[in-house]
Design brief:
By secondary structure, this protein is α/β, with parallel strands linked by helices. It is 44% helix and 19% strand.
Amino acid sequence: MNTPFFSIVLPTYNRASFLPRSIGSVINQGFNDWELIIIDDGSTDRTKEVVLSFDDSRIRYSYQENSERSAARNNGISKASGKWICFIDSDDEYLPEHLEVLYKHLQINNASRFVISGSYIQHHNEQKKHPLINVDANVLTEIATKFILMNSICVDRNILQHERFKETYAIWEDTHLWLRIAAKYSIYQIAQYTVIQHIHDQGTVVLGMKKISLKEVVQYIFAIQDLRDNYHVLFEGKLPPNYFNQYIDSKYRMYLYQARQNRQFTTAFQISIQAWQHRPSWYIFTEFPKIVLNFFYFGLHAR
């Protein structure tokens, strides 16, 4: 069996209705030297049936008991045989030129180890460009603040033999990995926009903001603390000494604001207590009366 140039890892869980678009976008690539590894993370819908309806020997289906997306992606990485590993989520898509653009870049820039393409974000009928990473700035802070969309990533397989997604976390697990890699290797940003992330009502981000889960907030913060405490050597001299604490503050504020706007008052109060315990501040102090005002419908923003 020939080794494909690209291995594409697609984890999925109960997304049978979205899969034809994502799988079809891979099949429709102008560059054909790829394998698509689909990891079914314990789906109970028609996922297997949908995948097997595609008659293409380059598509490989594998089922696992539900273990969350980090474990599914790591499983896909373990099964990959390509020189380069790309990712696609089950509700998103590649534009037809995506792999060809990556391939041409890699042929010219043979020092590349971690490549990012440009990404569109599609919400209903509105499409906009996700901000590109400024490689002339501090790439680590660029990744942490702008985030990198999963579908735009392509990584040298040799790197991912040593660096994997932390299976402890089901949130911020991607940024956790990208920051670890970016601390060791150069990042190349391709200015062409070749993938689309679809925002929809069943998406993880939308559902997560509609109802803030304290469990998810805690896991998000733990993931950042894990990077701060257990990988600090990687970031010495590359990030300000207090960077991750400030980053944690910003995430607490984000979740606290959204919980207030959702009128999830118990959750908002619990988040504010945790934020205060992390680092007391005037900002957090002023959040307590805002929670009360929101309870009486004051200070809510129109949606």
